[in-house]
User: Fold these one by one.
Assistant:
Number 1:
Amino acid sequence: MRKIIIAVAPVALDVSEKVDSILSPEEIANDVIASYRNGASLVHLHVRDKYGRPTEDLKEFTRTLDLIREGCDIIIQGSTGGVSDLSLEDRCVSLNDELFEMGSLNMGSVNLGENEYINKLSDIRFWARRMEERGIVPELEIFEPGMIDNVLLLAEEGVLKPPFIFGISNGFKGTLQANTRNIQFLADSIPAGAPWGYVHHGMKNMSLLAAAIAMGASVIRVGFEDSVYYAPGKIGKTNAVLVEKAATLIRDMGFEAATASESRELLGIRSRL
């Protein structure tokens, strides 16, 4: 039976009054472990300080990671992303912890609402080489079609090496709209046979996650970073609730949520456990 990876992105970009915001290492870890038990096999992790601001404090990462790993064997994915004033080094500080197995690698610059999300080719080369040095598998984040060309360019240079894992993101203000036409267009544009995942930022229901699965997505992502909704007017009070709804969706489509070990095999990740 076909397996679908559920990724959870638990830390919201902004503190929300609609749900219980999670900021401390203990809060994040508890929600991630509960999400794992409900079917998540990958966590896309940001860490923020007690005021909700992005932080490069490795101590915060280490404490959070240790607590997560004590409770489950979920795949842990760090980030080089985020609209911020952090330096190149600070944006990839999470890659310095040995518990990170994957890293999100944004494949170009893009407008995000009122902000500019800057990822120059020189920046991407820096982060890609850091991931290779540390044995971290990159997920190549695609917001616009031209970013796929950047992947091919850096692959030709030898900076990026197969197997490639793509992450398609729609719904951010100023980027491609979230609809089936754009999902299919981007999915058709990536190298044939490469696994890909889908993020619908700001979703009000999970219909496009279902569409992405039907189009061949290997990964779907839910969590407070993307949206608190799972159906029109229906809010998941925790990330674990959103994961549970995603797992139900997968089962209703006749598939199964992949375990962490199955996900590592699907994504070509060598377990560090």
Note: The CA atoms of residues 217 and 253 lie 13 Å apart.
Number 2:
Amino acid sequence: MAIIYLYLLSHFGYDCFYKQNPKGFSQQKKNTEDEQKLKSTLEQFAKIKGPKILVHGGGKSATTWSKKLGLTPKIIEGRRVTDLATLDVVTMVYAGLYNKKIVSILQAIPCNALGLTGADLNLIQSHKRVFKDIDYGFAGDIDFVETTILQQLLNNDVTPVFCAITHDKNGHLLNTNADTIASELAVALAHFFKTTLKFCFEKNGVLKNPEDDNSIIEKISFKDFQKYKHAGIISEGMIPKMDNAFFALKNKVEKVFICGSKAIHHQSGTLIQL
């Protein structure tokens, strides 16, 4: 079984890895609670037997860095609007800082991880989104996933770690929603494996009350999703997660969960159903 996990590092900031002082950033690790949570999560991920893929974002850190560089981040319905300057920032954060840090932690566990963008080995090819009402800038919509090379990596005990950057095969990088990358990978590999997709984030699942971590909605159908969205229970960044969850289920992915990082080994959180 190919188990594809999406673990968004949205609640781990840059300070999880480095600390700031009046002279700038030092490369001395901070022994912070967030760093320990990250390591613990990756240790649990590494224990999963069989082929697996990790996909990550880094949106909050990209927002922090954008502000440091004098840029004003713009988010619409949970998706980042990416101009050229923002594209440089998200590439630096996603493909550089976060991706290589995750790979280094996994290698130390050990887990034979390989950090990737969609441009590497032409694994994920996209086109610049054609906008109707909203111009998302250099945002990518996925056209193609190279499954032959992915299968070779998985069959040789390599664990791909994808960041949220793809390319158009014309020399342009594109910021691509990490939820979408995870669902497209799951759908592409569902032709060859029984595939489970998990969207893991800082909450324990989809919550009826955002202030109550125990108010988990155990199962959500598409009809439920429409009802909760209309009521404002599901909003902002959760909407693209749900959209991608239903897309995956409609395209042969066996199971989809939205859950907390502690549920990597367990079928807990919110089960998404058609």
Note: The helical segments are 33-46, 59-68, 84-108, 147-155, 178-189, 222-231, 238-249.
